[in-house]
Amino acid sequence: MTRQVRSLSADKLQEGLQTKRLGKSILFCRKVNSTNEWAKHLAKLGASEGTITIAETQTSGRGRLGRKWLSPKGGLWFSVILRPRLKPSEAVKLVFVGSLAVVEALRDLYDLPVETRWPNDVMIRGRKICGILSEANLSNSSESDYVIVGIGLNANVNVKEVFLKELKTRVTSIRDELGRRIELEELFRCLVKKLETLYLSFLNGGSAMILNTWKRYATFLGKHVKVSSLSEELMGLASDVDEEGALVLKLDDGSTRRVTAGNVSLSFTLNRATKGRNV
Ligand code: BT5
Fold it and tell me: Which of 59, 69, 133 to mutate to test the pocket of ligand 1 (most atoms within 8 A of CB)?
């Protein structure tokens, strides 16, 4: 029997939120195309830093490069408008602020064994539980005018019921990991608080510290990986994520490559037992 997923309570999202900058204005609706699109629209109209858009379901949730993000009821789908004055090379690193906030919230609240995967994923035992979509808009001075940080977290989602075939084996949720539903509003408040703390630290010169902490959860580092981008596929050892946030790959031919965009999957081609399988 399928149990009904409880609706989000707009009042409870704000209640007890202990932040100074983020979440002073929270806009909630049951169904929207994409909370990132909604936030972007508001940012263009002049919405202030910290405004959050959140929805129960998204009809056109987006990942990077226009990929689809499935957003059934029970998940936490929200976006935050930030207005830092940053060069593009700095603004791209806000994705690590988002991932680390998720990692810390999932560890503190539920003690989950979370991992980070370059550049924008949060994983549990090799399955994706959360993706971050950080989109910067540049002003005339080539500094960021606003950055939208979108967080998609499979919270009270029943993966077997909701996701189809291939994704089912690559995705997880808090509900499936814990075997129970969690209170979405509590998770939201914790996440927004973590985001604010890390964001303020980032603005105060803490970017290297944040990246180093993010790397502590990056279990793919030191492993043989496959990196797929629009233009190519590379295989090699993931040796580091450098201070710019680029992945440093030691290729099988001995050379080194810095990769600035792509998807990482663990490559088991060197392991005979799991030959050819990617996770
Ligand atoms: C991401 O993209 O991982 C970023 C996802 C960001 C979603 C949030 S939700 C709130 C805000 N509003 C939006 O419209 N977006 C943001 P990427 O690395 O490109 O990964 C996309 C891939 O993840 C897809 O191609 C699928 O393979 C997989 N995927 C789709 N839905 C998923 C889900 N709910 N959980 C885990 N994986 C999913």
Answer: 69
Q: How many CB atoms lie within 10 A of CB 167?
A: 13
Rounded to whole angstroms, the Cα distance separating 68 from 59 reads: 10
Q: Ligand 1 mean position to 51 CA, how many Å? A: 21
Q: How far apart are CA 250 and CA 67, in angstroms?
A: 28
CB 223 within 8 A of CB 205: no
Using the mean position of ligand 1's atoms as its centre, give its distance from the Cα of residue 205 in Å.
29
For the stretch 174-229, pLDDT in tens is: 999 999 999 999 999 999 999 999 999 999 999 999 999 999 999 999 999 999 98
Give pTM, 2 decimals.
0.94
Integer Rg of the chain from CA: 18
Helix ranges (H only) for the chain are: 10-14, 35-44, 88-91, 94-110, 159-162, 165-168, 174-178, 184-201, 207-216
Q: What does 145-202 look like in DSSP terms, one character per residue?
A: EEEEEEEEE--S--HHHHS-HHHHTTB--HHHHHTS---HHHHHHHHHHHHHHHHHHI
